[in-house]
Specification:
This protein is mainly beta and about 525 residues long. About 0% of the residues lie in helices and about 50% in strands. Strand 25 and strand 26 form a beta hairpin. About 45% of the residues are buried.
Amino acid sequence: MQKGPLARLGLTLVGVLAGAMLLAAPASASPTTLAPPAIPGVSPLPGPVATAATPSPTMGLLDVTPEQGVAGTPLTISGSHLPAGASVELTWSTADVTWVVDPEPDTVNYLGRSARDFAVVLDRVTTSTSGSFAVKLPAPDDWGGIHDIYAVIGGVEDAHGGFVLTRSVAVSPTSGPIGTPITITYSGLGSQLYPGGGSLLWDNHYVGELMANWTRGTARVTIRAAGPVGPHLIEVGDAISFLYLNLPQSPLPFANGATATFTTTADDGPPPPSIDWPASVTPTVSARTTLQASGLSTASGVSAALSSTSGRVGQRFGLTATGLDSGARVDAEWSTVVGSRVDCNSVCWSFVTVPLASATATRGSVTLRLAVPDGLGGWHVVQLSEGGKVVAQVPFYVQESIVGRGVSAVVVKQGQPFTVHLKGVGWTQLDNTVAVDYDNSYVGYGCGFNSNGDVLLRLHATGDPGTHIIDIYPMLYTASPSFANTPYGMVPILSYAEDDPALALGYELPAMRLAITVVK
């Protein structure tokens, strides 16, 4: 009989209620606007930030030719009826977009997105003796949508024009066997809410959502080729979670998408399980869950370090500490939480500690060999106690992992159930759930909080005999607690590798790739 999460932690409900601080679902949250981490390959601003200017009451018009196109389109910007011999700054409207969260000691709440509009200087020119100018330059690699262009003279916007950056889609490769990784680059996503997200379809099946908040309008995602052998239609279009099917009738008709074809060439059998990790970046937020779970004796003088600060369930790592009292008993404990988000109205979860190891300090130091507990993923803390007082604590990140081959059976009969087994799923709104695609079709999600990070997904084998792929993506959990203005929740985040708020807090949320063979 499988033990529940409390039993696996070696706890009883009475012990938890008696010894832990119980936490209610927060009624409100404190927004933290995330500073984006340094994502490789992101286009820089199209120019230096412009000084704020004042609109002229007699503003003229700039001629911009053509009026729309993709990034890199050759532009001609010209103006006339301006002061002769005047120094002109040509400015371009743009934005910075980022995610908003609320990091707490016991969780992280997802609160949506934030945008800041401003202008940059595209070029500087001098008008002729007749008060005119003309410049040629490529359309900037920037957000899709309408961009205002101003001719600014002496801090005054004297003339105005505009350019619409349209979308483009690139698919590479365009053919290959089942399981082939396909990179889809969608450029020209907007800085506003509606044109800021895109939906991806595979043969009219919803694969997931892609965003580009931290990549300035260019989303790069990877899916895998599914069967059967033959051509498959890939469609990308703007959306909030799901595709907006009548875009030409919307207030943003320029937010067009595109289609492409991928040809699945062969069925070479199920590829081995694999994990695609997100970009390796330096976090911009230092807060770590459970770090403040108990009081730390700041005057202890104890210094502790881990041989590794991240790993999978069961992985071993070392802890060394100095500055301890010689001959003192030292206890290493794991700080975590227990609870659930389901119908979370009063008591939801609680801090608990799990014993890891004990030792006696020799000449003021101790060395311990520890193992990652079989529990929740995400950020935890290894605490070192001396005489019942916490004297040092060090954060440790538990990665999501696939158990064995990931599936209960590699060969499954049509219509028969099978399971997918994962470890290390977390409890915050960033990592509490995983979204599941079967043959590039979103079928649902799994939660790891109540089951203490152990997730057993129950699926059914469908489709013609042959190889069928299962892809598991990160997801933003927005059900409980539920905050206003939290778009893109409860669906697969295909752009997890470069544009997921979890990256700024040091989370490593991957895509996990599995496959089965269906037989009659």
